[in-house]
Design brief:
mainly alpha; globular
Length: about 400
């Protein structure tokens, strides 16, 4: 008797994880920006420097959700509509991406010079327009200093590059899909490790570009989605999901990474793969494990996770604005605990408000139009798909 996959229409708890990851990126950029402009900074505790680790979590999460969506589509329709897959990404990701890119160009090319604030644009502007337009921000940002507003777009570029071949791959592969995904994980991880040890003898810029290609994270998420889709019961019976002590230990390992671990040359090169597996375990455990020890889903985390893409994309202008006025203001308690509480709260609170308005009045209307347009232009078999792909 053929196996009938257990399908999920929603993965509870993931919005909370999205929000936490987005805030970790914001915390890192607040710390770095305050340091760059000469404001007092908090001690360099590990949690303030883990934004890149949080972005890697987003990669695993995206790989998991999109792969699950494609597996469901393939199971229902015996096919993957690559064109529709790309259109979904266009309506969900592109509007805010291009808005931020355009604002970044205007900010660095015109606004800063107008106010006499020094920022040297050392890259060819026409090339910048082309590279960001082609979602090659990770290449461009690795080779040139572009400023924080534009720099955060590198992860969006990596995702778009990955999905450029991931959807056709899922469509074409008929047999041994899981084995091929495992090969892909270790292939891309091997490239990352060799690059970390400078095996390819690249310049610093090109090494940074290769380092940005974190496809092994997304492939790990894809492997997790495959196991959940086709081996649901066996997967959740594994000790790492059924044993609460093991769950606690794995949770503590993740917490230790964010709160205790400091950069180490060898660890930075070798750690990504075990960290990717930890992230994948966390995603599955939080969202579908009935024996989980953690519960994150509530209306507040649902709301905040729903605007996490906006939080990620829009926080840099807020940091610049708050830093600039803090630098100018005659605050007598700079460096005090109250000062840091006010600064961090202002940035995070303002970013959440901005992301909410962006989501409600800019992203959602475009997204809803995209849903309607796709609804009238795709096969009825693709309607009602599980796990919306309109998600970062």
């Amino acid at each position: 008797m053929p196996y009938i996959p257990i399908k999920y229409k929603w993965f509870p708890g993931l919005n909370a994880l999205r929000f936490v990851a987005a805030i970790l990126v914001v915390l890192m950029h607040i710390h770095i920006s305050m340091k760059q402009v000469g404001l007092p900074i908090l001690y360099e505790i590990p949690i303030l420097l883990k934004g890149y680790g949080a972005v890697s979590f987003f990669f695993v999460l995206s790989g998991f959700l999109i792969t699950y969506l494609l597996l469901d589509e393939k199971d229902r329709t015996k096919n993957v509509d690559v064109k529709t897959f790309y259109w979904r990404r266009v309506f969900r990701i592109w509007p805010l991406y291009f808005l931020v890119v355009i604002f970044g160009f205007v900010f660095y090319w015109f606004i800063l010079p107008f106010f006499g604030i020094e920022f040297r644009v050392e890259y060819p502007k026409a090339l910048g327009v082309i590279m960001y337009g082609l979602f090659a921000a990770n290449i461009f940002n690795s080779l040139y200093h572009v400023g924080g507003i534009l720099n955060i777009t590198w992860s969006i570029a990596v995702e778009e590059q990955f999905y450029l071949f991931w959807a056709p791959f899922m469509k074409l592969v008929k047999k041994r899909l899981f084995q091929i995904i495992i090969v892909a994980i270790f292939f891309f991880y091997s490239i990352a490790v060799l690059n970390g040890f400078n095996y390819f003898q690249l310049s610093d810029g090109w090494m940074a570009f290769v380092r940005s290609l974190q496809f092994h994270y997304m492939a790990v998420g894809g492997a997790g989605a495959y196991l959940l889709f086709y081996h649901h019961d066996r997967l959740l019976k594994a000790k790492i999901f059924s044993n609460k002590l093991l769950q606690l230990i794995l949770c503590l390992l993740i917490i230790a990474y964010y709160t205790l671990y400091k950069k180490n040359f060898i660890a930075e090169i070798l750690l990504p793969l075990p960290l990717a597996f930890l992230y994948c375990w966390l995603i599955i455990n939080v969202s579908v494990n009935p024996k989980k020890i953690t519960h994150f889903e509530n209306k507040y985390t649902h709301f905040l996770g729903g605007i996490s893409y906006g939080i990620y994309m829009l926080h840099m202008p807020v940091i610049y604005f708050v830093s600039y006025f803090t630098k100018l203001s005659p605050i007598s308690f700079q460096g005090s605990l109250l000062y840091f509480i006010i600064f961090y709260s202002t940035v995070i609170g303002s970013t959440i408000v901005l992301a909410h308005f962006s989501n409600r009045y800019f992203e959602n209307p475009i997204n809803q139009y995209g849903r309607k347009w796709l609804g009238s232009n795709i096969s009825p078999k693709l309607r009602g798909s599980v796990v919306t792909s309109f998600t970062k």
